Amino acid sequence: MSLIKNRAAVGPLHCHISLRANGKTLSSVDEMVKALRPEEPLHCVRPEVISNTAAAFRATFNGKVLYAVKCNPEPAVLRAVWDGGVRHFDCASISEVQLVRRLFPGAEIHFMHPVKARSAIREAWMLHGVRDFVLDTGSELTKIMQELEQQAGKPGLFIRLRLPEMGAAINLSQKFGAEPEAAISLLHAARSLTDKLGVAFHVGSQCLDPAAWRDAMQLAGEVIRASGVRVDVLDIGGGFPIAYPDMSPPPLGTFMAEIDAAYNVLQMPWLKLWAEPGRALVGSGASVVVQVQMRRGNMLYINDGVYGTLADAGTLRFRFPTRLLRTRHSRGAPDTAFGFFGPSCDSLDVMHGPFLLPDDVTEGDWIEIGQLGAYGTCLRTAFNGFDRGTLVEVSDGAMLETAGYELPKGRAPAVVKLPTRM
Ligand SMILES: Cc1ncc(COP(=O)(O)O)c(C=O)c1O
User: Fold this and answer.
1) Is residue 76 within 8 Å of residue 45, measured between CB atoms?
2) Which one of 10, 31, 121, 146 has the largest count of C-beta atoms within 10 Å of its C-beta?
3) Ligand 1 atom showing the smallest separation from residue 374 Cα
4) Is 34 exposed, middle or buried (0-12, 13-18, 19+ CB in 10 A)?
5) H-helix or E-strand spanning residue 75
6) Whether 151 and 261 share a structural domain
7) Is the minimum distance from the CB of 207 to ligand 1 under 6 angstroms?
8) Residue nearest to atom 5 of ligand 1 (CA)
9) Is the pLDDT assigned to residue 91 strictly greater than 80?
10) 239 by DSSP, 3-state: which?
11) Do 230 and 297 sit in the same domain of this protein?
12) Which domain, by its residues, includes 138?
């Protein structure tokens, strides 16, 4: 009984920061698999890929970069983002705020969820030094001001603007954002309450069209102008895409050129730009190694699925890059299209892919599934008890490169220290 009561909702990942075998520190996915022969999902974080990508994004974007913690809050990932020079964190819950503060006493944390618990607002301000809050309704503005009434200083207030459908893989404007008229009223109401007034938007996650930011910035500019008040910050959100086997985004520089051009059109030189990338910074920085438990035709029954790390392969039908790893001899069979079934008893636990693998793949083989650094491990559930797994840090490169995320010329790669366990 007490065991059940004390059980965490999702089993924590068993973390190996560094592993040795035969007197050698293991540093690649292949070495790890050979040594561990994992029968549960093996989450392989690539700190160097993450810190270099974060450094590249910071060097390309003309503004402040906030990492969207929600897309991967693993401490190893957060440390790699920090090593890439990111000092600002977009948090959506008090647990994320607590985690970031515990890891980085010097971080600047911004509370960017438009609907917050009263206790979360108070704790964020009083215990964790959070000063910026996003909102999209008058009632949330009232809530924030009531909770901070007794506190010295004014909060930074960001009005989240609703956008029309921008063609992203995941539309984030159905749930949040004030319509332009409402946003204008909120800007009026908030101006006298704050010394830092912002407008924020999100074009949707995995948005392949740079023009989406241009259109959104134009709309934000119209709202700001119509409000007649001075706005200090424009937060252009996340949504920057990475490559998947069937998605090749234009280079990051194309997005930034569009953003710079839209900024110049606004003619508000005092306006500071912020961005909240999640996927773009960490998506290429982790993979998961799964084991094949059974093959039925071209469907492989694997030990991770839509209730685990692979939610987006199911619900969103994302195709992820795959690579077969086996410790026995391979005859170099040609690639074939496979689908996956996850480990749960639910028939919705299916990922159609197609995922390309050698056609002799069989029970006991391992498959590395890449580009799972964002919205992978953080979506795991304990459904059917399949919530165990191990996290290791490896020095392999990304399984798929995304154009423009290379380190700027002449810049030394981030130094990746072996981090201490939390
Ligand atoms: C407010 C906010 N900012 C940033 C992000 C990160 O988005 P992405 O991972 O697409 O960059 C999200 C994702 O849901 C979000 O809701």
Assistant:
1) yes
2) 121
3) 9
4) middle
5) helix 75-83
6) yes
7) no
8) 238
9) yes
10) coil
11) no
12) 47-282
